[in-house]
Amino acid sequence: MPGAYRIIENTWIPLPDGRRLSARIWLPEGAGPFPAILEYLPYRKRDGTAPRDETTHTVFAAEGYACIRVDIAGTGDSEGVFDDEYSEQELSDGEAVLAWIAAQEWCGGNVGMIGISWGGFNGLQLAFRRPEALKAVVSVASTVDRYADDIHYMGGCLLSDNANWGSQMFAYQSRPADPELRADWREDWIKRIEGMPFMAAEWLRHQTRGDFWKHGSVCEDWTAIQAPVLAITGWADAYVNAPPALAANLTVPAKAMIGPWEHRYAHIAKLDPADFHGEVLRWFGRWLKGEETGAEDLPDYRVFMQEHFNPTMQNKPRQGRWVAEADWPSRNVRDRVMHLGQGVLADQPGSGVTVVSNPATVGQASGYFCPGMRFDNELAGDQAVDDALSACFDAAPLAEPLELLGRPRVKVAFSADKPVAQLVARLCDVSPEGVSQRITYRPLNLTCRNGFEVPQKLVPGQRYEAEIELNECAHRLKPGHVLRLALSASYWPVVWPAPEAAEVTLHLEECALILPERKAEQEIEPQNPGAPREYPVLQAEQLRAPGGSSKTWTREDGTLVLDTFDDYGKAVDPYHGICAGSHVTMHYEVHPDDPATAVFASDWTFEFERGGWQVSIETRNKATCDRENFYLWREVTAYEGAGRDVVVTKEWQETIPRGVL
């Protein structure tokens, strides 16, 4: 039976250089000592992740784990200065935190790390460093390669979310510590704002896969990780490649699971929630408590095999079934080669050429890069509108089902008319009614055809070869449906466009699609997670309900505009009484005839108050470009009191050469 626990609202964890990190602890009642679970984030334990923490650490504490939620240095209530994501400071501080936890009298010495996204990243990254206390990791929606599979670049192409995520972290960093915990909160607040790194610019300065991105990329040495890893994500999430890569390459016990979920822990997902707690407790029960939970006997790879479900941008249930592979890579998955012909996918090589050329507005149905971050209106919709503007290659309607599991590949022989060009591949499931559902996608900056460390500009008209390895997928196409490969030279707003509109000519006799076709003669028990168990919910007083909207419209000159609004609501925390609220607007635009007109802008507002204390922060951001440069601008204004007296205001701007982007 679950046991009682108590919450320690704040504890200071000392670091070797005298700084202190702020921690909230859920401590089981009883004699102890207990195994511990660490979640280590920059998102503010006091208000930012408090609603989610209530649904996780309370459950784990009741099952006999000491749970510790720590704010990274310079964020939330922690002392120090924040410098960058996954920095050496963050990871060395994390090692000190793990050692501190293991040394506490209430801890038996075994510590696990859990986290989604940032916390999933640094859990793997700290395991890579082999701290003695870290015995197991549950990593959700993470990456093994910070250049190839994060929010900055994909296939050597710049993602618009580099600017978007930079704007979000800019807003997050500008928030003050809680005066109840930090008497120096106001001085520290001003110091934080004045010294905030311009991360979007720093990330944009590192355009190739060099040492900057190799730091924290655990794929650099798979043998370094010696703590067992459970890797989880969802098909609606942006981070789908890490779990199977970890299962295939780690030399210690590693299991992968991908469900239908968006960028959330599975129990609170909007898309078919599941028993995330059960998965975590089984994993940590085995590796932190030494219990016989069957964790090591799980199939290497458990997936929700999706089917066509008439996609919309709104959250709606998925269709499919759970399947499992005992070993990964699996003998049940083999390459199936299909060749590109004139508008078709066929068993024999094609001939002639196909020109890929499209307006810069292709991508209207792409959805938000990382669904789960917005309120709604963020999923990939019917691809038909984008297919109509792309070069499409259709297979014959299926006579029998086709299952795909893994990463499809597209091999192309091509020439281009510009020195910098992109090729974006989308694999779609087209219903008999013509509804096109995206199965998977991925862009390639064709200057990176030989790798991502030293791109080489194209010689217009010269013939080259390249391969695009699409993102991981699990999809069953039904009889009567059509498999479609759609190729375009841009994919806005997910991918920042090339500097000029390019024509990419495909030489079809050497172009092929390699599918990871799954044929299982006998299915094994998938051990799917099942429905979520009951869990506590933060009993906050809601003062403003959350909500959101999206609007796509066209200016008189033909510029396509996407405006979104997300209000995350306003509520009072029941534990300490802080009233917090926030909202954000985002703006994307591009002219169909000129990719260099691409614009991203966002404005964030945060409000905090309790008693006589009242502050608010407004941040504004804009990213634009021409054919030679990127232009980044941002501004912050911080206010205090009911009269909104300005505490500090500051503006930054950077011009960064495009290189081969």
Automatic annotation (TrEMBL):
- Keyword Lipid metabolism assigned to the entry: answer is no
The protein's matches in Gene3D superfamilies, at most eight in alphabetical order, are given as: alpha-amino acid ester hydrolase ( Helical cap domain), alpha/beta hydrolase, Galactose-binding domain-like
> A GO molecular function for this record?
hydrolase activity
Q: Where is the Xaa-Pro dipeptidyl-peptidase C-terminal domain?
A: 281-536
Keywords linked to the UniProt accession: Hydrolase
Q: Which InterPro entries match?
A: AB_hydrolase_fold, CocE/Ser_esterase, Galactose-bd-like_sf, Xaa-Pro-like_dom, Xaa-Pro_dipept_C, Xaa-Pro_dipeptidyl-ppase/CocE
Pfam families given for it? Answer: Peptidase_S15 (PF02129), PepX_C (PF08530)
UniProt xrefs under SMART domains: PepX_C
Per its UniProt record, what NCBIfam families does this chain match? CocE_NonD
Q: What is this protein called?
A: CocE/NonD family hydrolase
What organism does this protein naturally occur in? Answer: Leisingera aquaemixtae
